[in-house]
Amino acid sequence: MVTNAKSPLAVTPSFIALLPLFLFLSLFIGAGLYYQHLGVDFAFYQLPSVVAILPAIIFALLISKEKLNNAIETFIEGIGHSNIIAMCLIYLLAGAFAAVAKATGGVDATVALGLSLIPSDLLLPGFFLIAAFIATAMGTSMGTIAAVAPIALGVSQEANIDLALMAGTVISGALFGDNLSIISDTTIAATRTQGCEMKDKFKENIIFSLPAAAITIAILMFVGQGSVELAPQEIDFFKVLPYLTILALAVSGLNVFVVLSVGIVLAGFTGFISIDYSITRFASDIFDGFKNMQEIFILSMLVGGLAALMQQRGGLAFISQKIEVIIKRFSKEQSKRVTEFGIAGLASLTNACVANNTVSIIVTGNIAKELAQKEGISAKRSASLLDIFSCVVQGVLPYGAQALLAASIFSISPLAAVTNAWYCFVLAAVSIVIISFRKQ
């Protein structure tokens, strides 16, 4: 997360500021690929991400232009950013809900209901649409994954669907809805920084998102065909109540913290009524859920601090500068089109650094607006490009919050989850084609 109040343009651009990020990625992804090559189970867990990032943080502190005490203060401010804290709280509540619901039999009951509602040969497209609908209503991909992933996990295990494929499907649907939602943080950030109406940005996004979603559904129908044989199961609607409630509350647009808190209480209540479930067991399961989210909780805070250090040192300014140089080099004949690709690249590279689509839009919004105004690009188009390409990158980052949360719930590696997030890859391809051939 970025917390520094300075604009990316107010600091001296520096490639050196990006080196800590490269160090972290080299250690984390490199170790995972190495152990995967050796055939080690859970290869990406052999070197915990929270350990792999420590050398990068130390390196970022050493190369900071601030005095050590000031650099540490910047790091701490990054950790304590409101977006980071909110993300961590979602992690905890999601973990607690999943643990309590599983202990009280809610998972098995919800699996049975889900299998009865979704055609047995269309489970993947079904979960994509469910996640997309909820994310559009809630305005948050994180909250959607927290609500849908536990259900999708149970269905996958029952139906013998590859867990990574289902995790990628849930991530895809969640990001599709989050990208379109008019109450999403990314929509708010994009429209405010570019100065356009939310409804106009929504209409612009539809041009890119609907074709990508249609292609994704077709792909999911193809890869899911013939892989599932389901037997009728008895449904205990009472135990399904917590899941149905959080889904209904999510659709209503209620705050995700309230949604998950209500889900935890209801899951415990069903246990008190239907099984021998005590208050102490309830408390213990909540704590177990917290512990299950320990790694992503710590990693999110450390990534927030690292991002703040990189912004302070000029890493984001360096990216912005290079994109402007590229635009000027190729803008003689097709300036608008090249500038649109420049805005897309700006959002993409920044999001890769900060691992948060909302923050990437906020810190690059002024730069994108300036570029768009110079070339006469409409505000709704630049807002849409920022949101779309930050969404694309966010969905394929193995160290992004969505991948980490889904991977934790499904107990798979984040890399496995994002490589199956088909919508993000399709959206990128569709967007490039539209930008390349659409009339300016």
What report would you give on this structure?
By secondary structure, this protein is mostly helical. The protein has two domains: 8-79 and 303-392 and 413-437, no CATH class; 84-294, no CATH class. Helices cover 78% and strands 0% of the residues. It has 21 helices and no strands. It has helices spanning 19-37, 49-63, 68-79, 82-103, 106-117, 123-138, 141-159, 163-180, 185-194, 198-224, 237-252, 256-274, 279-292, 294-313, 315-330, 335-354, 357-375, 379-396, 401-410, 414-418, 422-437. Helix 2 packs parallel to helix 14, helix 4 crosses helix 13 and helix 5 (106-117) crosses helix 7. The longest helix has 27 residues, at 198-224. It is globular, with a radius of gyration of 22 Å. Mean pLDDT is 81; it is low at 1-9.
Question: What would you say about this model in short?
Answer:
With 440 residues, the protein is mainly α. 78% of the residues lie in helices and 0% in strands.
Mean pLDDT: 81
Strand content: under 5%
Largest sheet: number of strands, sense, barrel closure: none
The 3D shape can be described as globular
Distance between the termini: 34 Å
The tally of beta strands, per DSSP, is 0
- Based on secondary structure, the structural category is mainly alpha
- Helices and strands, in N-to-C order? HHHHHHHHHHHHHHHHHHHHH
Number of helices: 21
Report the oligomer: single chain
Specify Rg, calculated over alpha carbons: 22 Å
Q: Which spans of ≥5 residues are poorly predicted at pLDDT below 50?
A: 1-9
Proportion of residues in helical segments: over 70%
